[in-house]
Amino acid sequence: METATNTRDINKKREGYLEWPEYFMATAFLAAKRSKDPCSQVGACIVNEHNVIVGTGYNGMPKGCHDEEFPWSKESKNELENKYLYVCHAELNAILNKNSANVRNCSLYVGLFPCNECAKVIIQSGIKEVIYMSDKHSKKISTIASKRMLDAARVTYWQLIPKNRRIVIDFDEINWNEQNQLPASPAPVQVSKMMENLTIAGTTAKPLQFDEIVDN
Ligand SMILES: [Zn+2]
């Protein structure tokens, strides 16, 4: 079996690199892996007009509201013991986590189509585009309301259908011994050779030069 190593052409751009939309959606999916929600793990990734990530988030309890003390259930008869009243959705967290002054004109990548509450925050923050993977709640009134608001506010949305169905992060994938990002080091210079070019201070010392400088 041929490996990626022995088929690569080091003089050409590498093939098989991640394209931007898949990279950003994969970043959202990676963030989702932080979620403690047993039923639904959603991640979001906000990207500015220069393809720079300016925020990520996943669904979780607010800061200080500890996962051990707040419920992850969704079926309790007591609504106070269900998660819905407490959880911050991925989109909200990504916007609040932004590391830029604002997220105006940014795009938001998210695993699941935003609910109506997140749509409000998306619109008010100036995000102009939503890219999602699943629209499985399209029949729910919260999604219908969400689309009504996004449409009115001219926030565009489209579904990403990735070319790669699986993106695996394998910490052992990269063979660091074969990585060669830096130019080759100059050949080692022997100290004894260097010393030949030096004379004792106070005499006509020739400056140490690794290469002769021609100064015309
Ligand atoms: Zn939401």
UniProtKB/TrEMBL annotation:
<dbReference type="InterPro" id="IPR016192">
    <property type="entry name" value="APOBEC/CMP_deaminase_Zn-bd"/>
</dbReference>
<comment type="function">
    <text>Supplies the nucleotide substrate for thymidylate synthetase.</text>
</comment>
<dbReference type="GO" id="GO:0004132">
    <property type="term" value="F:dCMP deaminase activity"/>
</dbReference>
<dbReference type="InterPro" id="IPR035105">
    <property type="entry name" value="Deoxycytidylate_deaminase_dom"/>
</dbReference>
<comment type="similarity">
    <text>Belongs to the cytidine and deoxycytidylate deaminase family.</text>
</comment>
<dbReference type="GO" id="GO:0008270">
    <property type="term" value="F:zinc ion binding"/>
</dbReference>
<dbReference type="InterPro" id="IPR016193">
    <property type="entry name" value="Cytidine_deaminase-like"/>
</dbReference>
<dbReference type="InterPro" id="IPR015517">
    <property type="entry name" value="dCMP_deaminase-rel"/>
</dbReference>
<feature type="domain" description="CMP/dCMP-type deaminase">
    <location>
        <begin position="19"/>
        <end position="157"/>
    </location>
</feature>
<keyword id="KW-0378">Hydrolase</keyword>
<keyword id="KW-0479">Metal-binding</keyword>
<protein>
    <recommendedName>
        <fullName>Probable deoxycytidylate deaminase</fullName>
        <ecNumber>3.5.4.12</ecNumber>
    </recommendedName>
</protein>
<dbReference type="GO" id="GO:0009165">
    <property type="term" value="P:nucleotide biosynthetic process"/>
</dbReference>
<dbReference type="GO" id="GO:0005737">
    <property type="term" value="C:cytoplasm"/>
</dbReference>
<keyword id="KW-0862">Zinc</keyword>
<dbReference type="InterPro" id="IPR002125">
    <property type="entry name" value="CMP_dCMP_dom"/>
</dbReference>
<dbReference type="Pfam" id="PF00383">
    <property type="entry name" value="dCMP_cyt_deam_1"/>
</dbReference>
<keyword id="KW-0545">Nucleotide biosynthesis</keyword>
